[in-house]
Amino acid sequence: MLTQALIRDRVSRFPTRCKNAGLKVTHQRTAVYGMLAASESHPSPEEVYSQIRQNLPTVSLATVYKILDLFHKYGFLRKVSTEGQVARYDANVDPHHHAICTQCGTIKDIFQESDARIALAQPEVSDFTITHCDVIYHGLCKGCQSRSRQKKG
Amino acid sequence: MLTQALIRDRVSRFPTRCKNAGLKVTHQRTAVYGMLAASESHPSPEEVYSQIRQNLPTVSLATVYKILDLFHKYGFLRKVSTEGQVARYDANVDPHHHAICTQCGTIKDIFQESDARIALAQPEVSDFTITHCDVIYHGLCKGCQSRSRQKKG
DNA sequence: GTGGCTGCAAAGCTTTTGCATGTTC
DNA sequence: GAACATGCAAAAGCTTTGCAGCCAC
Q: First vs last Cα of chain A: how many Å apart?
């Protein structure tokens, strides 16, 4: 669960992490990271952009793209694997899985110890050196379930 | 492993599957399915297009997109979840996982019984009705490993 | 002060759409 | 022959790029 304390913790570490990586701490970067650190909805670049624009009206979408890409490269963010939808980012880089709604695209974090242990173990894959693993469950979220029930009934 | 017998089997079932689904059996559809059924490389739409164009020079890329989307909807094909690269398709819809090379994008099928059993089981996810699950391993393929070793050494 | 970062505008790719024409059943 | 599929061209995303000016350090 995402608590206020956890958000504060992530955000407070951000400047140091940037410095350690040799990255400058700009308003735009702080805003992007802060927005994602406080979010559980796995926002798209467009969503990050329109959110941070409220406090930083001159920011550009291209910059948001550049920042997201950079943070992903440096491991500050995780990119959720989807079947071809727009990019979605997650500031929670601790091992966990995702459930994606086939209908509305909602992404929910899944923390399941039994699954995690196996899926995050590095399997014996011939000819491949595994660095990390994504587990993505596809299905219908509660909202879309009740919506489709209404249509039928 | 993809044997000639398995390819023949898939291709021979194709017309019946179309009819059962109420889909017309056209040259374009047969070519797209045949190409994917005989492939282990998880081709992109563009790759399917340029391949089948050799025997069907008038086919259009838009048609390939429409066919791939249709086949995916009807469950003839699986779409591989990627972190935002181009779409990749797989005619093997039996349960299995994928390993994707971070550097060159090569996708390899993974058949691991212990993993499969767990990842394909439907977990207890509150507020979600799970229909299927993707497990994607990320890492370096053999080729890219030796290439990066050469650079260093 | 300098190197790195941002904003802008433009381009690049992938994918989708609308419609007239052609094909399957 | 009717319904459905295709091909074309155009548009619609999403994402990247190049470069002049700006800002963090």
A: 35
